[in-house]
Amino acid sequence: MPQRGLPSGGSLFLATVTASFVSAAFLSRADAYLLTSLCSLGKQLKLLPMALLAGAGSMIVCLFFLRDDRPVFREWPFLWLFCSAILLIASRCYLSHLLNRWSTSGRLARRVAVIGAGEFSREFIERLRSEPNLYTVVGLYDDRLSRIPAVQDGVKVRGSVRDLLERSREEQVDQIVIALPLSAMSRISTILEQVGSAVADLCLTTDFVGFRYRSSQISSVGPNPVVLIEERPLKDWRAAKKLAFDIIIGSLMLVVLSPLLALIALAIRLDSPGPVLFRQPRLGFNNRLFTCYKFRTMHHGMTDLLGDRQATRGDSRVTRIGKWLRALSLDELPQLLNVLKGNMSIVGPRPHPPNTKAEDKLFSDVVAKYAFRHRVKPGITGWAQVNGWRGETRTVEQIENRVACDLAYIENWSIWFDLRIMVLTITREILSRHAF
To answer: Do the strands 175-179 and 201-205 form a parallel or antiparallel pair, or are they unpaired?
Structure first.
């Protein structure tokens, strides 16, 4: 006789989730989700049986501990194994065919920009041409424009290093490769400072003799060995997980909070004349400007679009309802629309207006690595905010600490870190003394 516990449907759901998680974890540890693995149908077919058996085994263990003698519990693992095998094999066959077709057409090719005209870049580009479907050289860049030809071995010289940084904000560049000898180390250091904030992998291809490096720094771009100086944060599957998290959580929050948003909008309209939303240009991903949405908390006509004057405690520009919205941090809720539009995340470095200053100096002039925080999407809340670095920024120390927290978040990102920050936002920041 079955013991009391979870209903049949709940037990089977729990066992199915457990088996699916174990199978996915097995495939992940076997690197089955790498692009090269997904393109190889043979490798996928070798990995799937062990992953499915591991999942079925975990399901049997799960059902055993539930101690239910009903026939459906004995049959379910075999039914799951059969259906999962059919689904996974069919999906992997289709995905392998699709990715190989895209690879052949060049749609999956990494876009590579090369810095430094000369022998190093010539050899690098020549070796890269052996894999035309995987890599595309988008241009050659060099500050010595008056001393080099306009075209080197069929690759156009598109400008200086500064031009590359500007162009990387307008078009996708996956990897930036500095092709210079170690004897030009001072020049390499200058280039690294110039392009360090670019949203791309930053590599060095050089003469390795006498060069000290960690094994984790050695990578490759096609057949070329390179030293990986800086890796783009949140790329590939990490970016996909972050995007899925933002879309799912953002959509749920927008639906759940819609009655509250409607009440706030009505209160703003009744409190003072003017629009409900305040639209402000702010610096976002890759240092691009985007329109950030907030509930209007200031009298219409007194708002500061570019952030020349920060809000202060007791600011006369703030409306009666605006004081409450700011104190409860509810004025930020319309940024859920920004999340669904794709120009913000739930969690990330807070976006600033372009003219925001500390001690009468622009943030970018105060902190050398300020632009590095724009290598990921800005967020509604962030690590700096839950650590108390929010509100008016008067001193250089305040913005330095804020940027330090933002860079620490980028370096240590995970879904669990995002969830932790969301919880801390509620426990620490609602009615925070820093909000006004």
So the answer is: parallel
Q: Are 91 and 33 in contact (CB under 8 A)?
A: no
Counting Cα atoms < 13 Å in the Cβ hemisphere of 32 gives 22
Two tokens, residue 269 = 């309209």
Pairing state between β 175-179 and 277-283: unpaired
Tokens (6 digits) for 156: 């156009």
The two three-digit tokens of residue 284, written as one number: 């976002």
- 270: tokens are 């009744």
| Per-state percent for the chain, helix, strand, coil, to nearest 5 | 50, 15, 35
Backbone angles phi, psi at 314, to 5 degrees: 75, 20
pLDDT tens, position by position, 74-112: 788 888 899 999 999 999 999 889 988 888 877 888 899
User: Cα(251)–Cα(336) distance, rounded to whole angstroms?
Assistant: 8
* Amino acid letter for position 106: G
CA angle 256–260–264, rounded 5-degree value: 150
Burial of 203 (0-12, 13-18, 19+ CB in 10 A): buried
Q: What is the pLDDT of residues 347-391, one digit of tens each?
A: 999 998 887 777 777 787 778 788 889 999 999 999 998 888 877
pTM score, whole prediction: 0.79
Q: What's the angle, vertex CA 214, arms to CA 211 and CA 216, rounded to 5?
A: 130
Residues 6+ apart with CB under 8 A from 295: 264, 265, 268, 276, 277, 278, 322, 325, 330, 331, 333, 334
Can you tell me the distance from the alpha carbon of 139 to that of 166, in angstroms, rounded to the nearest whole number? 13
Under 8 Å between Cβ of 347 and 313: no
Structural contact between residues 234 and 242, judged by C-beta atoms closer than 8 angstroms: yes
